Amino acid sequence: MLTTTLLASCELPTSYGDFSLHVFGDDGREDVIALVHGGPEADQQPLVRLHSACFTGDVLASLRCDCGPQLDTAVRLMAKEKHGVLLYLPRHEGRGIGLVNKIKAYALQEAGMDTVAANVHLGLPTDARDYQAAAQALRLLGVSSLRLATNNPAKIEALVDAGLTVERVPHGGFVSPHNSEYLRVKDLLMGHLDATGGGRAG
């Protein structure tokens, strides 16, 4: 069974505001990086975002996905909260298949496949992510009830199954000509929820 522990912490001033930074993992593995604004207060649900690592979107500002704008918006939202927590999940690159396989899937998408079909063609799961470490990190941060900024029902289900109380806050709507098909597949084939909060998109 995965046992997540706190590996290191520091204070981190950023252009968004002042945060604390915590790294959680198991046996030295860096599973969860928590960027925290403020701290727990009585009867307060922090705003939380579980963000899967995306080198192409987060670092290179790729327009093939909406990951970069999602991350930027999430950190800006956290900075405005009395208590906000961004969990950055480095092992979730490419929905858990890793960067090399993600690039291979990109090449297949350029040949006409959608994101789901490309993973299947490579013999890989559509979504290999696991949120157990994220749930444990939230517990270690003193969070048991939260508002989760997401359109992904799998994230909500995973945290609820871990015993956390979750209220969904829609997060998204970052559509461009480059990522519209990618987002359509997330909505129709992966069951993502409408960014407006009114049900599923599409």
List the helices and strands and how they pair.
Blueprint: E1 5-13, E2 18-26, E3 29-38, E4 47-52, H1 55-59, H2 67-80, E5 83-89, H3 99-110, H4 115-121, H5 132-140, E6 145-149, H6 153-161, E7 165-169, H7 180-190
Mean pLDDT, to the nearest integer, reads 87
Give me the CATH fold name.
Rossmann fold
Oligomer: single chain
| Counted beta strands | 7
Q: Strands across the major sheet, in which order?
A: 1-2-3-5-4-6-7
Q: Any overview of this molecule?
A:
The chain has helices spanning 55-59, 67-80, 99-110, 115-121, 132-140, 153-161, 180-190; strands at 5-13, 18-26, 29-38, 47-52, 83-89, 145-149, 165-169. With 202 residues, the chain is an alpha/beta fold. The protein has a single domain, classed as GTP cyclohydrolase II (Rossmann fold), CATH 3.40.50. A seven-stranded mixed sheet has the order 1-2-3-5-4-6-7, sandwiched between helices. The longest helix is centred in the middle third of the chain and has 14 residues, at 67-80. The model is unreliable at 197-202 (pLDDT under 50).
